[in-house]
Amino acid sequence: MSKFVDSCKAFLKDEEGLTVIEYVIGAAMLVFGLSTIFTGISGELSTKLTTIVQAIKSSS
């Protein structure tokens, strides 16, 4: 167990560990932002596609 604790302490002191955490946080923020944008767009896109399909059906 002592070896595990020592490994954890070494990881926390290592600056490369902080860099990895920063990249993970940045990636999570990017995914959250993109999912928010695409969620908003999907409703509008669905409405537009439905309108187009109905126009095509009514012209046939």
Plain-language structure description:
With 60 residues, the protein is mainly alpha-helical. It has one domain. Helix content is 95%, strand content 0%. It has two helices and no strands. It has helices spanning 2-13, 15-59. The model has no long low-confidence stretch (mean pLDDT 86).
**Could you give the count of β-strands?**
0
User: Which residues sit in consecutive blocks of at least 5 with pLDDT less than 50?
Assistant: none
The count of helical stretches stands at 2
What is the averaged pLDDT score?
Answer: 86
Distance between the termini: 74 Å
The oligomerization state is: single chain
Keywords: Membrane, Transmembrane, Transmembrane helix
Organism: Vibrio rotiferianus
Protein name: Flp family type IVb pilin
Q: What's a concise summary of this model?
A:
By secondary structure, the chain is mainly alpha-helical. Helices cover 95% and strands 0% of the residues.
Topology of this protein?
Layout: H1 2-13, H2 15-59
What features would you highlight for this structure?
single chain, 60 residues, mainly alpha, 2 helices, 0% strand, rod-shaped, Flp family type IVb pilin, transmembrane helix, transmembrane, membrane
